[in-house]
Amino acid sequence: MRRRSALAAVTTLAGTAIAGVVSRPGGNDRLLTAAQEGSDDITTETTQLLPDTVHETTLYELTASDPGPTVMVFGGIHGDERNGIEAAHDATEWAPDAGQLVVVPETDRVAVENDERGGIDGDLNRHFPAGEEPTSDLARGIWDAVERYDPDVVLDLHRSLGIYGFHREYVGQTLFHSADAHGRAIADALTADAVPWYLPFHRFTPAESTAGGPLLFQKAAAELDATAYLFETTAFLLDHATMTEQSRLVTAHVLAAHGVLEYDTGIGVAGTGEPDQESETEPDGGTSA
Amino acid sequence: MSGASPETEPGRESELSAGPAGWLEIGRRALTSPATVATTILLIVPFALGWFRTELFSPLALPGYVIYSVGTAIGNAIAPRFEFWVYWVPFLGGCYGIAVSVGTGYEWVRARRAAGEDGTETDRSPDPPGESDD
Predict the structure, then answer these.
(1) Rounded to whole angstroms, what are the CA distances from A184 to A27, A101, A176, A219?
(2) Residue B54 to residue A242, Cβ atoms within 8 A
(3) Which residues of B touch A19 (CB under 8 A)?
(4) Residue A41: is its pLDDT beyond 90?
(5) ipTM above 0.90, yes or no
């Protein structure tokens, strides 16, 4: 009887584990493949920002033959958030179907090389006050490039240590966005793609951000009228590979939602086209954004 | 699951039902009860696997995930600057505490059942000679 009970218990546990593995979301390989394989007819150019300075960093410009919006993607504004740097580097090899994809994978190169949050002048993502000049040489160089491209969409990739609304100090698993963005739809799509049901606290939250803060995406929304996103994954219980995959996915979803990728995710130009209506949430000014 | 069967310890059941001393005995047994060990393993091991590699999270990790996450949320609200790995210490303690509660319930049920079986055996005892209706 005891042996039978033990066998039943082991079978139940194994069955539960297998069911979980089988029901785990498998990412969105089709979307990422679409991003990698897009149009054959693209031109790629690289430019050095802040050349001959300690901040010199590479900007990648991928232009499709079909007209479309310009999307700028930033990684490495915080040098120790490797997921965004890696995902942005991957995006430099993608092929947009329309418009232009502009990527700066290592925005604060000194911070990236030192594997630290801030570079020479501290936290770069506090150097972009709306309505004023950026407050450091690096920020001015980056902002010059942003103004030059005048992007329709800006995406800034980050990583927090905890979870927004759960750990008071942190802002992870959140997609901050400007009022005209598809924040909720993209956050829901990310949850469906990348968060298994048995990690419920890791579901993505959309949060509309005010445009008056000192963050790059806020300045782009306020001064250039860009649709802006700031993505935060979390290091809380997620390993590097998972955080990087989530960063890749959000990049692909933003590109698809705004028509740079011809892939129907049901969001934005491929879907309803209606931006979110959300309650306004103050973006984090502290630990991670 | 194995462990000392109440049947092998004559007189134990009456001891267990004899007020505080009986509860102390149940509590002592619960510390190492098979139910305690199994619950501890169930709460910690699947979660620890996911901690090492996110891919290894499974539905079995959900109880440990909830306990650990809620613990960090409370801890972060009280003492914000602790790194999250610190919470492994209270997590392990908390899991064992929960497991001991489960083990206590298990041992209590076993003791009750054993006491019930004793009573049943008494009822079934053959009638004394000479008092048969036959």
Answers:
(1) 18, 23, 10, 21
(2) yes
(3) 59
(4) no
(5) no
